[in-house]
Amino acid sequence: MPASESLSLAIQVKGLKKSFKELEVLRGVDLDVVPGSVFALLGSNGAGKTTVVRILSTLLKADGGAASVNGFDVGAQPAKVRESISLTGQFAAVDEILSGRENLVMVARLRHLPDPGRVAEDLLQRFALADAAERRVATYSGGMRRRLDIAMSLIGNPPVIFLDEPTNGLDPQARITVWHAVKELAGQGTTVLLTTQYLEEAEHLADRIAILHQGRIIVNGTLAELKQLLPPAKVEYVEKQPTLEDVYFAIVGDDGTAATSAASTRKAEQRP
Fewer CB near the terminus (10 Å): N or C of the chain? Predict the structure, then answer.
């Protein structure tokens, strides 16, 4: 791909192909991601989403096609690509022997940041892990490990971040925390490519959405553009009932703090 073209994009993929023995996983994937945007890659299990991420993060070699990240060719300049990215995979890559704080400080030191302690403290607060900072990660719940893993991936402010199903298995509050972090990153100019099976997640976060199906991108556009692919909606006037998510957050609050209304409390008190 021309150097000038790839430099204007945070991620560029042309004709990407990958097979595992006789199984053809990627059959010519094309996608462009502009800097400072959130790009969501949707697809069912086995569609090839993780394979795309592994190739872009230099963990896997493509069989064909070309790809660049932050202006660096994935095949020819893998070291430069690794300096430009951070990757959070589907499973939390944390050290269970260390505490949450020690995990964060370790990564900050590996990235040669000047004040690892402050970096760790900021992220512990940001991901609601301050109360568990000194505990060994072996005692953390699955959701806490996942939040710590994502926090570790943000250290050093890499220009491009890959999030492979970042909220899989998280509780509603933890999921909202991750969503806020992703939006904040994009607002600061970081490029985020995330894979997800949660359509609501893509709706909330993504500037552009692509659907990977049978090894190819079958549609790619903004949410508004994708909605235009369907026939116009039939207008009906119905009473909107609250969803379970509405009820959940009305009771516990977005940050996990109980937020039951005074009216509900009075009702409970009036019961015999």
Answer: C
